[in-house]
Amino acid sequence: xxxxxxxxxxxxxxxxxxxxxxxxxxxxxxxxxxxxxxxxxxxxxxxxxxxxxxxxxxxxxxxxxxxxxxxxxxxxxxxxxxxxxxxxxxxxxxxxxxxxxxxxxxxxxxxxxxxxxxxxxxxxxxxxxxxxxxxxxxxxxxxxxxxxxxxxxxxxxxxxxxxxxxxxxxxxxxxxxxxxxxxxxxxxxxxxxxxxxxxxxxxxxxxxxxxxxxxxxxxxxxxxxxxxxxxxxxxxxxxxxxxxxxxxxxxxxxxxxxxxxxxxxxxxxxxxxxxxxxxxxxxxxxxxxxxxxxxxxxxxxxxxxxxxxxxxxxxxxxxxxxxxxxxxxxxxxxxxxxxxxxxxxxxxxxxxxxxxxxxxxxxxxxxxxxxxxxxxxxxxxxxxxxxxxxxxxxxxxxxxxxxxxxxxxxxxxxxxxxxxxxxxxxxxxxxxxxxxxxxxxxxxxxxx
Length: 448
Prior knowledge:
By secondary structure, the protein is of the alpha+beta class.
């Protein structure tokens, strides 16, 4: 299976992801010519070699009318019409490019028109000569950013507006990354836990915590961590691109790599300031594959066997409980899910002295092991937790944003092993059912 792995040990930004993906191509300059042929108004992309901690990679910069985005003065979004506070869309993105990517403190002052999400969609769908899939990817990524800004500033998405330079800079980053992903066409995309940085970031209207609110919202349900680097390492655009394209988040799978790309920022840290991407083939389990092909001869589909398996590793933690109330067990389960467990479940168990009890089991990524063990001891009465490490076979998974007459609905798409299935997020469907006075079944029929 053709698999791509993103190492985000120093976060991610749109330009850094583009640069890393560009290094996977045999003819990167040919792609830049193709990109500039789109004629995004005033946009020019340049590629240059960069060295960080002795590692050679690529730095990509985007200019709009000759100006490279590096000042928050350009990019404030505003919420209009209802007395809300200004929505600072892409402020964090600009500060990232100033602190994490660019050197020097000079700024520029320009006057630019505002642009809404509708204007962006008009530009992408009606004026850019892109494959339909790429257009859909671009707008899905931008929708994630707009929803995050809307949530962070408590205003409708339709009231979020972006200054022109900041908008075109972000559209260029997102479009280039989506074009590259379409060209490289991985079957699966695995992303490491994302380093978001720590401390605070200075924006035009104050100081924000790291990760910035919009970035934090996009990275819900994604494994992230802070670390010792002070400053913002993951931007809203970087977060949205990873969230959109990731099949799953976790450790690097066993794979035979065919290419490695390094996308560099400009500023120097103690660690190499880059995003690293691996492209290759996921290693197959020959014994299991042989068994699977044997089953295929008896009627099961064989397509996925020919393509190989997508696997990852999980930690299983378990403990036996015989002196807790049902309410206390339920609370412990909720806390484990809130902390990022992949799965938590209970089974009835017969305990010593003929006591009825519960077997509580938690599945998590290896990076969550310590936190989960701590929560088990804190929220249950157990005095011992068992651990087992196991491999699992997974379908490729992707979260798709779907526009409906009732608002945005998220859909989980899964594919692999000769099967394909989709499921709408229950929370979105339930919200529509409550708002519209319909049953869940009625909502499912209408949005399908």
